[in-house]
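hi! just following up on the protien thing from before. the input was this:
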Amino acid sequence: MNPRNALAASATLHCLTGCAIGEILGLMIGTAAGFSTAATIALAVGLAFFFGYLLSLIPIVRSGAGLAVAVKVVLLADTLSIATMEIVDNAVMALIPGAMDAGLVNPIFWLGMMIALAVAFAAAFPVNRYLIDRGKGHALTHQYHEGHEGHEGHDHGDHTGHQHGKEQS
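and the predicted 3d structure came back as:
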């Protein structure tokens, strides 16, 4: 696989993981608490952003970056990807008949969620590839990953405006 496609796929899968954790947790909490559909969706989206950011923040802070720098990098790197994933995920769930009203114990909900997350991955992948090609998105975070794990074959010196070891402006 092309190294940039591999990096984009890795970034998208990373985003999908955080979004899925937040979405499912938010839906579980909202359903259990008896929230309205709108409030449940708002909670799920909020938690999707929270966990998406958190999964990126932890390794950057562990690398020795200060919290303020880590938050700035994560917000710049992940917001567009997470937003794309959330918009598509929720749109697909809304389009699948009965998925939003199915409840957590109904297979229609879980099938809908799997379809929605797969479509969201497909939508966010080109967004991440576009950002990586311009030295943005996940390209901003990988300099903080110890040894650049998971980036074998990736040309680290080929990001426009990207300088290793220096904070991005």
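Residues 3-145 form one domain.
The helical segments are 3-33, 37-62, 67-95, 107-133, 138-141.
cheers
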